[in-house]
Amino acid sequence: METINILKEIRQELKELSKNPKNIKDYSRFFKDNKKHIGLAASIVRKLSAEKFKRIKHLDKKQILELCEKLLECNDSSSQDIAFDWAYRIRKEYVKSDFAIFEKWLEKYVDSWGSCDDLCTHAFGYYLFVFPESIPKIQRWTKSKNKWKRRASAVIFIYSLRRGRYLKESLKIAKSLLLDKEDLVQKGYGWMLKEASNINQEEIFNFVMKHKSIMPRTALRYAIEKMPTSLKKQAMIKSSKKYL
């Protein structure tokens, strides 16, 4: 009964918060898909998520993940944000079999780069950090017909790369995605390389230089964004091959 009540409360509070125009933000400029992306400000949703988690943190992990699933079924971005936040808050309790749950969420509920990145740079990203044996499964996502799984195969490494792990494996992912024609996938693996360059600049620069003749400009620009100007100039010298 308690779990049913908390879900009802969240839905009602999200509805009430949405009535105030000051709480609404237009995120359309971040998506570039010619659709309207209007919703509650992220800061407001995060605050609500934190407040409600205090009410459920005594529950066991299974119950919390079931609540997350119920929130995801609501099919709105705010409920989704709360679900992914709650899942990340119980990260210390993850076990190997949780991969199936997170992969299911990725396949069933992720429908934008925002939701993809939210899941994969937090809950799923932490999972990968502590369970590297899942990497072969993630490598297979690079061949998926689902563009969000392909993007996820890269951005899921960001959590670990920020902590100095899995460089070799992430470069293998980047190579698999190198010629992906989807702009958001290119940006995804370009972002992954950029994050890796904070600790492993030489390795990322060498990767870019080796593949720049065929690497889409979108991914290349992301990858070298934080590098010194001198390295950027070398990387941006046009190749004789035209690939975009």
Explain the overall architecture:
The chain has a domain at 111-244: Leucine-rich Repeat Variant (Alpha Horseshoe). The chain contains 15 helices and two strands. It has helices at residues 2-18, 42-56, 61-73, 77-89, 98-108, 113-120, 123-130, 135-140, 147-155, 158-161, 167-177, 183-197, 201-211, 217-224, 229-236, and strands at 24-26, 38-40. It starts with a helix and ends in an 8-residue tail after the last helix. The radius of gyration is 19 Å and the shape is elongated. By secondary structure, it is an all-alpha fold.
Salient structural properties:
single chain, 244 residues, mainly alpha, Leucine-rich Repeat Variant, two-stranded antiparallel sheet
Topology at a glance:
Blueprint: H1 2-18, E1 24-26, E2 38-40, H2 42-56, H3 61-73, H4 77-89, H5 98-108, H6 113-120, H7 123-130, H8 135-140, H9 147-155, H10 158-161, H11 167-177, H12 183-197, H13 201-211, H14 217-224, H15 229-236
Antiparallel strand pairs: 1-2
Helix pairs in contact: 1-2, 2-4, 3-4, 6-9, 9-12, 11-12, 12-13, 12-14
Brief sketch in words of this structure:
The protein has 244 residues and is mostly helical. It is built from 15 helices and 2 strands.
Order of helix and strand elements from N to C terminus: HEEHHHHHHHHHHHHHH
What is the level 1 CATH name of the domain at 111-244? Mainly Alpha
Class from secondary-structure proportions = mainly alpha
Q: Round the mean pLDDT to the nearest integer and report it.
A: 91
CATH topology (level 3) name of the domain at 111-244: Leucine-rich Repeat Variant
Q: Helicity range of the residues?
A: 55-70%
Query: How large is the share of residues in beta strands?
Result: under 5%
The CATH architecture of the domain at 111-244 comes to Alpha Horseshoe
Main sheet?
2 strands, antiparallel
Shape: elongated
Order of strands across the widest beta sheet?
1-2
Given as residue ranges, the uncertain stretches (5+ residues, pLDDT < 50) are: 239-244
Q: In whole angstroms, how far apart are the ends?
A: 56 Å
Number of strands: 2
The number of distinct helices, counting runs of at least 4 residues, comes to 15
What's the gyration radius in Å? 19 Å
